[in-house]
Design a protein that fits this description.
Elements lengths: L1 E2 L15 H10 L4 E3 L5 E3 L2 E6 L5 E6 L13 H13 L10 E8 L2 E6 L6 H4 L10 H4 L14 E7 L3 E6 L13 E6 L3 H10 L4 E4 L2 H8 L5 E4 L10 E6 L9 H10 L2 H8 L28 H15 L2 E8 L3 H15 L3 E8 L1 H10 L4 E6 L9 H4 L20 H12 L3 H18 L2 E6 L3 E4 L3 E2 L26 E2 L2
Parallel strand pairs: 1-10, 14-15, 14-16
Antiparallel strand pairs: 2-3, 4-5, 5-7, 6-7, 8-9, 9-10, 11-18, 12-18, 13-16, 13-17, 19-20
Helix pairs in contact: 7-9, 13-14
């Protein structure tokens, strides 16, 4: 299977996982929670996830009789170690700051206590913090490159940027699974090279976000393509330009408004994304229950010029650094288009590139003006709390997961309602407010919804269907990832 990136490690408590990280994770580990077809969370590795009456604590009870690949039992002690590692992690811990503490409550159960009620907490257990690693791995300084989980496949070898190989787990806790004997994951930075490997038969399948690749293979009857372009219960990633509102000139709302009014989003989608992915005015897409009109600024060059002229008269010319990840042809093309659009309103910009690791670190540290960005895909809006909250906002020079450094108490108040109120209608109203306030503050210049896909030969069967242990259906392809345990290779 081809992937479009490589990760820095395969440790769910310490490594930065993107789509590739989750593909690796789905093979080697199991999550405590997985999603049903309608996007609701259901226990998977866990047997039950039970809240207290006020949602201020949750009890996680594990399924009995499950062992890690090294033969050690999955029990409360192992779960406790995983959760504490996640809470203490510099990476994932910032998303778990609402956890006050965890304690063992039985041989297979742990209680997670919260600072404030946390209604959608189970969604986080289907995310990276919910993938459970063996204590032997977590206590190994080299564990991130030698992963040990309970998953359907056992780690065999990994040469970063070349290949990760896993083999079937003969003692998997779900009898009869997996069907495959093994998987070789091969990363491709260049989409054209990935496409050529699919066409030559060197790959059986691939995960892609490259729109030209997805469109090309969608038109090729020799391949099966499952994408999320035509609606999904999962909130998709958004393509956008993230603005640093914490320093001049982008601390001036009028400048951000001008930049928004100058963008012809449909032109960007047509050129850079091969027409795929509907233009967007907020983090939620039409058809989602969280969606409502946001009042986001529309294309208006005259208004944009007027706003920039007012800024220039008061504070001087606007010149920006426009960042893109090195080697990303799509975002480079976006930057070139945006650069020409901003030039029409009197804003000059210089395109800069950086390798992904330093690109993300510079953004978190506030060392940027405007960056091409793809983010915010989730199954519940609370999963974006850490990116939008003032709780995770820090000054330039410190790591801020509120990367745009947008400080809006109205957003914070709405996020708290969305996290603590069990009433679904109140939560929907809260997140619709968040989207409207983001359209007013403009820390993000929305472009379109991201489209991800899995491309496969017809021999790769059942990759868009998965099940829970009780036989009920699970969520299929989502965000370019899927579960491997029920996939097989036909002849």
């Amino acid at each position: 299977m081809g992937t479009f990136s490589e990760v820095d490690g395969i440790d769910p408590t310490a490594s930065a996982w993107d789509t590739t990280g989750y593909l690796y994770g789905e093979a080697i580990f199991d999550p405590l929670v997985a999603f049903a077809p309608d996007g609701t969370p259901k226990p998977y590795l866990a047997e039950a996830i039970t809240p207290s009456t006020d949602y201020s604590s949750w009890t996680i009870t594990l399924r009995p009789g499950i062992a890690f690949h090294d033969g050690t039992p999955l029990d409360a002690d192992a779960l406790l170690l995983n959760l504490r590692k996640q809470i203490d992690s510099l990476l994932t811990g910032q998303a778990l700051t609402n956890i006050a503490g965890v304690e063992k409550s039985g041989p297979l159960s742990v209680v997670v206590n919260m600072h404030t009620p946390w209604v959608p907490f189970p969604y986080y257990l289907a995310d990276q913090p919910g993938y459970i690693a063996a204590p032997s791995m977590l206590n190994d300084p080299n564990g991130a490159s030698h992963p040990v989980g309970t998953g359907p496949f056992v780690f065999e070898k990994w040469e970063p940027n070349v290949e990760l190989t896993v083999r079937a787990n003969p003692h998997y806790w779900r009898p009869g699974l997996p069907y495959l004997d093994g998987i070789s994951f091969r990363p491709f930075v260049n989409p054209a090279a990935m496409g050529a490997s699919l066409l030559s038969g060197a790959l059986d399948s691939a995960s892609s976000t490259d729109q030209s690749t997805i469109l090309s293979f969608s038109r090729d009857s020799r391949f099966v393509v499952v994408d999320d372009a035509h609606g999904t219960v999962v909130q998709p990633d958004a393509n956008c330009i993230i603005l640093n509102t914490g320093k001049p000139p982008l601390d001036d709302l009028k400048v951000r408004q001008a930049l928004a009014h100058a963008l012809d989003k449909q032109a960007i989608v047509n050129v850079a994304f091969a027409g795929l992915g509907a233009v967007s005015d907020g983090p939620f897409v039409e058809g989602s229950e969280w969606y409502a009109p946001t009042g986001y600024p529309q294309l208006d060059l005259a208004k944009a010029r007027s706003l920039i002229a007012a800024h220039v008269a008061d504070k001087g010319q606007v010149h920006l650094s426009l960042g893109v990840p090195a080697g990303d042809s799509t975002y480079t093309q976006i930057a070139e288009l945006v650069q020409s659009m901003w030039k029409k309103i009197g804003v000059t910009s210089q395109i800069s590139q950086a390798e992904m690791a330093s690109y993300e670190l510079d953004a978190a540290m506030g060392n940027f003006d405007a960056d091409g960005w793809q983010q915010f895909g989730c199954d519940d809006p609370d999963e974006n709390y850490v990116w939008w909250s003032t709780d995770s906002l820090h000054r330039e020079g410190q790591v801020s997961l509120n990367v745009a450094r947008n400080a809006d108490q109205r957003i914070q108040d709405a996020l708290v309602v969305g996290r603590t109120n069990p009433d679904r209608s109140a939560r929907v109203e809260a997140y619709q407010k968040v989207a409207r306030y983001l359209a007013e503050d403009l820390p993000y210049l929305w472009i379109n919804r991201s489209v991800s896909a899995v491309i496969a030969t017809p021999a790769v069967e059942n990759f868009n269907a998965t099940t829970f242990a009780d036989g009920s259906p699970g969520q299929g392809v989502s965000g370019g990832t899927f579960r491997f345990s029920t996939t097989w290779l036909g002849r």
